[in-house]
Structures are given as structure tokens and as C-alpha cells.
Amino acid sequence: MNTLRSGLRIAGAALVATAALYAADLRVDLSKETIGRPPAAFEPMVGTWIIAQDGGEKVLMVDGRPWVASKDTPARLLIESARKLYGTSNEELMDNAKQFAYFPVAVLRGLDSFTNGTISLKFKTIAGEADRASGILFNVKPNGDWLAVRYNDTENNVALWEFHNGIRRNIRFSDRAHKFMLDRAAWHELKLTVDGADLKTWLDGELALEYTLGSMPGPGRNNAPPNSDLIPANNAVLRPPVMGKVGVWAKTDTTSYFKDYVVSPK
């Protein structure tokens, strides 16, 4: 009996330790990164991602300036990144390369799958002629499909987007009547919470957007049937649970700074 109790205590302690380890925050430390080099903490999939200096601290920068010159030739970088992340060149990911090229993304290394909890980051808009969009990438699937929540500094709104079958589509915009007029010279916090199928996005502490994965889409334009790719039964990235890699997201020629990237599993 004493042996059984001792065994149960040891097993219980192991479970608590495991739960504590799983629940620990993953905080990305950029302090030891090399300025002017690609980040070690993130794997750039598309776009130019480098470590930059902002005041007295190191930050992750997506540099939109080279985007126009490189947007039509993403396949080499995608193949190399897919091999590093998934151990394969992944033909389906390559098929999506043309559209994928419009959305610079970098995937966090060392976290194979995020399901429940919180992802937060701080961003600062620097430049962009076509776009000024900064976001959180999540639910990244091996075929390159993903979800992203982002703030757009040209539209002054928050949105949830999905990428599936080589096409990006909007899932939900923040209230169009409410404009988030942010100071471009300041840092701002974007936060995503995932609780099962329920997604919430916060901007500087204000709830900006809510969505439930698995929800059926509304009718299309002029009451047309919804696009079949937006029906969760046809689209794994829109079905709960969230289960995939995470990272940072931008659009076309956006140049933004990112820091304080934190993943807090639930």
C-alpha cells in the first residue's frame, strides 16, 4: 500500500511538472540576435525578415522594400523553408506559392503546434506604399494553409483572414464604424486568445474582433451561396481545434517592427 501511495505521489508530481512545463510562457528573446541578419528565433517563409535596431533594443523587422522585386519568385525560399519545418518540399505548399508570395510570413521555431491559449506581440508600423499591415500568424498547416489576425494601418481596422487552396479570404472584420487610429511612431500590442473554437483579438487592450471556428459563412454578394472554401467541412483551417505552427505576418510591401512575442499555452 505504501509503495502504491509512493508511486501515485511520484506520478502525480510528474503530471504537475509536465502541466507546468506545458503551461509555461514561451517568450522570444531577440537580445542575442545579430543585427542585419535573419532571425534565429523565426524561420522566414516568405519576404525579407531581419533583425534591426530600434533605440536601445533589437527587434524583428519585415522589410517590404525588396518585396516588389521578389514577389514572383517565392518557390526557392518556400522549398527550403518547407524542408526545414516539415522535412519535405511539400508539393501542395509549392502549388500555393504564387498567392503565398503576397504575404510575408515567418514561423516561430521550436513550437510544433499551438492549440489553446494566448499569442501576443508588439508592433510598430514603419513604411509601406501598398500596405501597412502587421499580424499574428497561427494554425499553420503543413500544406501552407493558415489563419492570421492583423491590424491594417491604411484601413485602421483589425481582421481575421484565412489562406486556403492558394487564396486568401476574409473571415471577419472589426466593426467598420470603429476606426483604430494608432500612432505610427509608437509601439502597439496585438493579442489573440484561443479557447477551443472561440477566437478573440485585442488591440492595445481593446477587444476588436470575435469569431467561432466552425461557424457557417453567410451568403455571398447579392445573396449568392457562400464560397464553398469558406464552409468548414471543406476547409480544415476553419475547423476547430486550432492546431498548427504560429508566427508573424505582413502583407506585400509592409515594413514593420515586431518585439515581445509571447505564446502562453492554456
Account of the 3D structure:
By secondary structure, the chain is an alpha+beta fold. It has a single domain (about 25-265), classed as Exo-inulinase, domain 1 (Jelly Rolls). About 20% of the residues lie in helices and about 40% in strands. It is built from five helices and 15 strands. The strands form two sheets. Strands 1, 3, 4, 6, 11, 12, 13 and 15 form an eight-stranded antiparallel β-sheet that branches. A seven-stranded antiparallel β-sheet has the order 2-5-14-7-8-9-10, covered by helices on one side. Mean pLDDT is about 85; it is low at about 1-20.
List keywords for this structure.
15 strands, 266 residues, disordered N terminus, 18% helix, 7-stranded antiparallel β-sheet, Jelly Rolls
**Count of extended strands:** 15
CATH homologous superfamily caption:
Exo-inulinase, domain 1
N- to C-terminal distance: 35 Å
Strand content is 35-45%
Mean pLDDT rating: 85
The general outline is globular
Query: What is the CATH C-level name?
Result: Mainly Beta
Number of domains: 1
> Architecture, according to CATH?
Sandwich
How many helices does DSSP assign?
Answer: 5
Alpha carbon gyration radius: 20 Å
- Per CATH, what is the topology? Jelly Rolls
Order of helices and strands: HEEEEHHHHEEEEEEEEEEE
- Please estimate the helix content: 10-25%
What would a concise description of this structure say?
This protein is of the alpha+beta class. The protein has five helices and 15 strands. The chain is globular and about 50 Å long.
